[in-house]
Specification:
By secondary structure, the protein is an alpha/beta fold. It is built from 14 helices and eight strands. The chain folds into two domains: 48 residues; 257 residues, 2-enoyl-CoA Hydratase, Chain A, domain 1 (Alpha-Beta Complex), CATH 3.90.226. Helices cover 49% and strands 15% of the residues. Strands 1, 2, 3, 4, 5, 6, 7 and 8 form an eight-stranded mixed beta sheet that branches. A hairpin with a 2-residue loop joins strand 2 and strand 3. The longest helix is centred in the last third of the chain and has 20 residues.
Length: 325
């Protein structure tokens, strides 16, 4: 049974009715195909109407959709001969970040990404996609492996943020993220990063210093979550609600459209109508298309040119224009 967000409730009623009619027609002589067809068209039109008028807060909810494909889902669809590698060779393994070597369309690549997990048991195991320092150190170890063997790096971004626990801080969370940013900026192999769900704070940034940065259509990417932003700005005595989160999401400019307009990301990868969770394989094919569109010009560059262009790209973000008083 599909999971529906609050703003999708009218769609849920319609699709539930379609499913009931399909079951009713199975094994009977009742011909209700025309009625099913009519309702399917109505559902498609309604879905199109809902998803063409999404607010930033609604997009945030879609980015967190429990049925949305995660890193391992995409790897399972697009990668051949994938071998997952574990551990940072210093402390241990962090299941909140997964990575390894595989082939996409026959091309060997190192693929790394956040993994949130489904169901209570797996979510706890994956720490809800919030990495510890060893996760970032594992990711960096794999990137260095890619550099050594001249393989491109693909990263999938999907985290509410790095884990803020005491243990993580004791093991150098800030240093691990800072080192990741520094080393990715000068890695001598192409890096393509894709925000597939939530891109939250430094936890996302630590895997997204790239030659090309893309976002799925209904993903979000910001310095803080709408809830965290609302709590800092507006929480006094009363509790915060959806209206506050929506206001914060509007202000944060966290959608793919916003970030493309600011030239922070390079392009938006379109999703099927209703979101990636409805057609994971179609979304995965689109991701592969964008990976290879980016890869061809990047692989033709020398290592020094690649690093120079990456540096220039990063330096352009947040540029200012001064006018005389």
């Amino acid at each position: 049974m599909s999971y529906y967000l609050d703003f999708e409730k009218p769609l849920e009623e319609l699709e539930t009715k379609i499913e009931e009619l399909r079951k009713l027609s199975d094994g009977t002589e009742i011909d209700i195909a025309s009625e099913i067809k009519r309702l399917e068209k109505k559902a498609k039109d309604l879905r199109s109407e809902i998803f063409s008028n999404l607010t930033p807060w609604q997009k945030t909810l879609i980015a967190r959709h429990p049925e949305r494909p995660y890193t391992l889902d995409y790897i399972g669809i697009i990668a051949e001969d994938f071998i997952e590698l574990h551990g940072d060779r210093r402390f241990g393994d962090d299941p909140a970040i997964v990575g390894g070597v595989g082939k996409i369309n026959g091309v060997p690549m190192v693929i790394i990404g956040h993994q949130k997990g489904r169901g209570t048991k797996e979510r706890i195991y994956r720490n809800f996609g919030q990495p510890n320092p060893e996760g970032y150190r594992k990711a960096l170890r794999l990137m260095k492996l890619a550099e050594r063997f001249k393989m491109p790096v693909v990263t999938f971004i999907d985290t509410p943020g790095a884990y803020p626990g005491i243990g993580a801080e004791e093991r150098g969370q800030g240093e691990a993220i800072a080192t990741s940013l520094m080393e990715m900026s000068r890695l001598k192999t192409p890096i393509i990063s894709i925000v597939i769900g939530e891109g939250g704070s430094g936890g996302a940034l630590a895997l997204s210093v790239a030659d090309r940065l893309y976002m799925l259509e209904h993903s979000v990417y910001s310095v803080i979550s709408p809830e965290g932003c609302a709590a800092i700005l507006w929480r006094k005595n009363g509790e915060l609600g959806t209206e506050d989160f929506s206001r914060a999401a509007d202000s944060l400019k966290l959608t793919a459209e916003d970030l493309k307009s600011f030239k922070i990301i390079d392009d938006i990868i379109p999703e099927p109508l209703g979101g990636a969770n409805r057609e994971p394989e179609t979304t995965a094919k689109k991701i592969v298309e964008y990976i290879f569109k980016a890869l061809e010009p990047l692989q033709s560059k020398s290592a020094s040119k690649l690093i120079e262009d990456r540096y220039k790209k990063i330096r352009k973000i947040g540029s200012l224009t001064q006018t005389a008083q």
